[in-house]
Amino acid sequence: xxxxxxxxxxxxxxxxxxxxxxxxxxxxxxxxxxxxxxxxxxxxxxxxxxxxxxxxxxxxxxxxxxxxxxxxxxxxxxxxxxxxxxxxxxxxxxxxxxxxxxxxxxxxxxxxxxxxxxxxxxxxxxxxxxxxxxxxxxxxxxxxxxxxxxxxxxxxxxxxxxx
Length: 163
Known about the structure:
The chain is of the alpha+beta class. The protein is about 25% helix and about 30% strand. The chain has two domains: about 5-35; about 50-160, Immunoglobulins (Immunoglobulin-like), CATH 2.60.40.10. An eight-stranded antiparallel beta sheet has the order 7-6-3-4-5-2-1-8. The mean pLDDT is about 80.
């Protein structure tokens, strides 16, 4: 009969040691990711400030009351054209927010100017990926807003009131 090799020369003890060791390594890596990555900000309508939620819902309701709609077209040259109807009097500027679903650093705010043809225009860099759109009149205390979703590759979008 041959002598039994010591425990460290056998494969099963190392296999049994490797499983918990892998779990410990994975937990340290997860801890590293949690501490090194900035906190992701997910934009949501139901933030902690209840007054802000109420104001936003009132803006949606006001857009629905007015029957507002906006049609947005993005040309290949990078110009966003928005036709807003019906509204009287027409605001001089509109604020268009392009909101990234998870990365706040990629959010963009555009100010669109009213042109002589009654449409709003601004230069835009076509975003890659999905974006949430929010359209409001320029200036403080906007009373309405329109919202929509810009899917990748879309050249036109209809923003109905009160969505």
